[in-house]
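Late entry, evening session. Most of the bench is empty. Finally got around to the prediction I had been postponing all week. Sequence below, unchanged from the version circulated by S.P.
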Amino acid sequence: MLKKARLPILISAALGTLSTPLFAQDANEKDVEKIVVTATKRAASIKEVPFSVNAQTQADIERAGATNLEELSRNVAGLTIQNLGPGQSQVALRGVSAGQIVRDQPGVKEQVGVYLDESVISLSLFTPDLDLYDLNRVETLRGPQGTLFGSGSIGGTVRYITNQPELDTFEGSFEANLNTLTDGETGGHVKGMINIPLIDNTLALRAVAYSTEYAGFIDAHTPNGLDEDVNSGNRSGGRIALKWQPLDNVTITPRIVFQNIETDGFNRQEAFNVFANPFTTTRPAITFNEREQFLLLSESFEDETTIFDLTSEVNFDSFDATFVYSYTDRDILVSRDASALTGSVSIDLDFPDQAALLPSNLRDRTQIEQDTYELRFSSNTDSPLQWLVGAFYSDTQRDYSQFLPTPGYDAVADSVLGAGTSAGAANGFPSDSPFNSRLPYDLEQTAFFAEFNYDVTDKLVVTLGSRFYDYEETRRFTTGGVFSNADDQTDTTESDGFTSRLIANYTLNETVNLNAQISQGFRLGGVNDPLNRGLCNQQDLAVFGDFQDYDDEELTNYEVGVKAQKSGWSANVAVFYTSIDNLQVTLDAGSCSSRISFNVPEAHTGGVEFEVTRQATEQLYLTFAGSLLEAEFDSTVLDSSGAVLGGVEDGNRLASVPELQFSIAGTYDLATPLFGSDYTYVSASVQYVGDRITQPSDQVAGAGDFRSGLAFGGATGNELTSLDLELDAYQIFNISTGLVYDDWELVAYINNLTDENANLALDRERGGRARLGFSTNQPRTFGVTFRKTF
């Protein structure tokens, strides 16, 4: 009986199953009841939550070998991650996507809220790349969660739930990994956790520390030859939490989280660079192979994150009170080789070739300080009416700056454009930097929310919730340099309103639960940065020059779902339709080296998502999950000439999201364990991600045909570079085998067995005139992981 109880837990974990298994009334029921989520801001068994929730447990994460949210997402129906480089991923749920948002659009808000326990850590482009060690679970709440989680959760919410300090248990764990990449470097990690009771039943400490070395796999052509594996990096950090229970009904948990990420480059494979292409004759012609790029300067990414939070809980006879304070401090620096960008502008300005080849470093810095407060009260009785009410306040200071240090550029610009030109355009910014900007943001939000659950009958429970929100954002925009307009303006965005949901959950019988809902979500609007008019050609200036403000995005979700469980199998299926008003869409403004956001009056997403588990035999366990989506515009947007703007046409696809995504996993537990182990298992999985586009304009006929228009290096600029901008579907095959002993485990694995080289997102510089390429995934990886608990 012990083996039967263990098997589904072991196997479901082996590949990061697609949902937490809901095994029925047999020997596994006690294990299932331990799986508790807080998707409704109160603890409940996952099968009791009346909407679509996925919970990847710590065992799921470990056996899948997932080290970040992108790797985990392939096992979660409806969740997609657009990888734009380390620490720069964008999250989408159920096809609700605005397209690619890049580093220089700091005013665009996220569409999926991300939380670390109770703390908000969302940040549009820069979704925190948190280490997944010693997590209790990762919850994915699908559909708008505006009632309890507010703006930024319009598509859904992802929550990292950590293991909390244990008052009466001394325990620890250790994990070491070594891996090597095909045609790449060797990497690995060391991680550990310790839980120490300090005062019996009163005070305990839990500490986590980790360090990961990322193996590089991108090679860079340089003037001095080929540099190999230029995108290696390191992630290190930890968490320290105290749990203090001075009284039986009072718990106070302060914590500090710190993490530092440093990488030497980006996962970009290029197809064209104005300095490196097949068309040059007076400089070496270069045709790029897979996982290659061109650099004049080394690149880097740095992300220093510190989070302090404090959660206080007081349990009274009829209700609970919870207070949460969180402080976040992040400093993010994206340092890119912008030589192709600056050089392309110099060629347009008829600068000499040696000036166009001046190395140029674009430094984008984002600094954030955010304070959030939440106070809520919730009932804890057995009454048919359950309630939760609360208030939320946040104050976010976000400073974004961009500098383009290019030594020697002022002298060249002045010699061509006239003496004093550079100094006259500097606007107080440093010399030899043709473009500079500073954008300080101040965002305040206040919200009040309430949700009520009422047992209409023994089988029918109705949930009604609403949230009032009030936002005010102030932004100043200042620029300088010969590429700029020397702007200096201040803009304010304000918004307030209600977002609500109504849910009905019906227990049909012991096997099947049915649910239905109507729910709302919203995303705050904003103001576009002025175009770099000095860089725009006349066509792009006419098309994009009139966009300034963009309004709040609003969404209404209609959904029905079923959760079923019986001995040996479970299923979780949801069918939904989402109507979106004023969808915020982002387009590249071509030669202007700018990006703009604007509203599309109407759009929709709809589809079905499913998660099925099956214990086929005593030894074999299978999981299958996926989503089938339709995400389309329902309106057409025209530019100033009356032409369709950037592919935003009724019936065209939304960007970034595959129509079909699924994962199939199987684990076989050997009847006779090997090498004296308690359990020996073999696992295999395939994760399929369908075709996508990066921006709406990528689906327009001829969008993949690029001509730089830049005469340089013997090339005329009229040569054609043709790319397929529909990102092909890809499949990732993983296999692993593990030996599980009483308190330690050894796992050997191969990830990306077929060495799939997937195009994850289109990377274009200055509309493709300066550079074209794709972000790509990690190649075939061989690895061994050792885990120990005590």
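Two things to note before I forget:
The first strand starts at residue 36 and ends at 37.
The chain has a mean pLDDT of 89.
Will write this up properly tomorrow.
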